[in-house]
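Researcher: Here's the sequence for the chain we discussed earlier.
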Amino acid sequence: MILGILGEKGGTGKSTVATNLAAYLAGQGKDVLILDADPQGTAYKWNQRRDKEAPRISCVQAFGDIYDAVMDQARRFGHVIIDAGGHDSEALRAALLAADVAYAPLQASQPDIETSGPLNRLIGDAKKLNRKLIARAVISRAPTNPMINETMEAREALAELDQLDLSRVFVRDRKIYRDAMVEGLGVVEMTNSKAKAEIQLLGQEIFA
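Model: Thanks. This is the structure I predict for it:
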């Protein structure tokens, strides 16, 4: 599978989702590569910090029109995860053309919801050329306090989008995700059972 993790806004948790899904697949013995198309190189740097004893995850960087690079890596690896940058770019559009599945992490905030409209239109345009594309939005960095209603309000707003389905999974705003990024690990390789369950559910939704 070619999986694109993308969006039109930074800070939504794209690299967190991409790296944790890669660790989830690697833990199952899958052959996985992250293609980091974000000039910030967050996923690439995460992989550089990864312990050599942890399950292997390959990672390369590519920018601009990444379509050919993605398709080339897809011939070599069972799974390619594209971490596209947080803005409309040539790489993001190429990722939509190459991907089998695209996930857009969005925070439960008005600025993120406002960027979902343009992304919805981009996905609609991409589907005219990439007819196999399945696209979903996933609420990322959701509040852990059940009394805060932002998450459900965001889901209601996103339900109006015609090109993006909604993931059943929430990725909560937990410190363990930040710790995992620093250590070059996925939360499935750590001890926080709640975060581990979130990534396992997301992985099962995507890769089942």
